[in-house]
């Protein structure tokens, strides 16, 4: 990693690609240029997978079913997704189930992305606007992803935004833009309380179950810094200890 990328990113350079091969080429060229994979995000509907993936309804269902594992997606997708971090599947209104990777996917799928969850209900364009992308460009990106194209977002220091723009252009990117959009990172380290859980997760857990979730999540982080693994272990613990009540909330402690 170059020293320039150690700073907080100041600009986002984004583009759409009509086919996965061009997208993969662009990502590979970014990586070869020294852009860390943790700064590259992609969203799309039509990734070529080796297995048919159906039935995903919400990000909670994905995590609850243990499907948010990067290792799993590495085996399902032998494509560009294997180059990036934080791969997951989520349901977005007007788009349906989409595959996302990178920091944008982590923000949308994470345990503490409550602010984004509200925007997600109104579609991808609303999410992008909530992060600082101009409304006109956000609307175009939503329309293009809906039509089957892929969105690529790269976070770079301001002084590297020009060369990144040209790289995406030469790789076949369209609707290229440089914006002040900022993708939020989850708080580093442990959760301080259940108030840091997203509204979607809290809605499915009683207060006791929320506390169990936080304790298990933090304990898992102590053992390994991998947040996705901590999320999955927390949900596994909930399913071990609680049953759903008639409202679908994990609130009924199982008998020992």
UniProtKB/TrEMBL annotation:
<feature type="transmembrane region" description="Helical">
    <location>
        <begin position="90"/>
        <end position="109"/>
    </location>
</feature>
<protein>
    <recommendedName>
        <fullName>General stress protein 17M-like domain-containing protein</fullName>
    </recommendedName>
</protein>
<keyword id="KW-1133">Transmembrane helix</keyword>
<dbReference type="InterPro" id="IPR009317">
    <property type="entry name" value="ChaB"/>
</dbReference>
<keyword id="KW-0812">Transmembrane</keyword>
<dbReference type="InterPro" id="IPR052948">
    <property type="entry name" value="Low_temp-induced_all0457"/>
</dbReference>
<dbReference type="Pfam" id="PF11181">
    <property type="entry name" value="YflT"/>
</dbReference>
<dbReference type="InterPro" id="IPR037205">
    <property type="entry name" value="ChaB_sf"/>
</dbReference>
<feature type="transmembrane region" description="Helical">
    <location>
        <begin position="116"/>
        <end position="133"/>
    </location>
</feature>
<feature type="domain" description="General stress protein 17M-like">
    <location>
        <begin position="15"/>
        <end position="82"/>
    </location>
</feature>
<keyword id="KW-0472">Membrane</keyword>
<dbReference type="Pfam" id="PF06150">
    <property type="entry name" value="ChaB"/>
</dbReference>
<dbReference type="InterPro" id="IPR025889">
    <property type="entry name" value="GSP17M-like_dom"/>
</dbReference>
């Amino acid at each position: 990693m170059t020293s320039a990328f150690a700073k907080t990113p100041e600009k986002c350079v984004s583009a759409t690609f009509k086919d996965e091969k061009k997208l993969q080429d662009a990502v590979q060229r970014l990586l070869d240029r020294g852009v860390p994979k943790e700064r590259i995000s992609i969203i799309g509907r039509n990734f070529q997978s080796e297995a048919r993936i159906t039935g995903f309804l919400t990000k909670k269902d994905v995590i609850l079913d243990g499907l948010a594992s990067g290792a799993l997606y590495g085996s399902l997708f032998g494509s560009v997704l294997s180059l990036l971090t934080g791969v997951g599947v989520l349901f977005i209104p007007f788009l349906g189930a989409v595959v996302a990777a990178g920091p944008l996917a982590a923000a949308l799928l994470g345990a503490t992305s409550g602010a984004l969850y509200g925007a997600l209900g109104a579609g991808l364009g609303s999410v992008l606007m909530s992060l600082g992308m101009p409304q006109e460009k956000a609307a175009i990106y939503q329309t293009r992803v809906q039509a089957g194209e892929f969105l690529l977002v790269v976070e770079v220091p301001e002084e590297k935004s020009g060369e990144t723009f040209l790289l995406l252009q030469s790789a076949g990117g369209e609707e290229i833009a440089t914006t002040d959009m900022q993708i939020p990172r989850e708080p580093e380290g442990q959760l301080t309380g259940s108030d840091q859980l997203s509204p979607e997760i809290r809605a499915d857990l009683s207060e006791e179950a929320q506390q169990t979730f936080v304790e298990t999540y933090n304990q898992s982080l102590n053992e390994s810094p991998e947040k996705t693994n901590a999320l999955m272990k927390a949900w596994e613990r909930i399913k071990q200890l609680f049953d759903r009540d008639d409202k679908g909330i994990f609130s009924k402690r199982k008998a020992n």
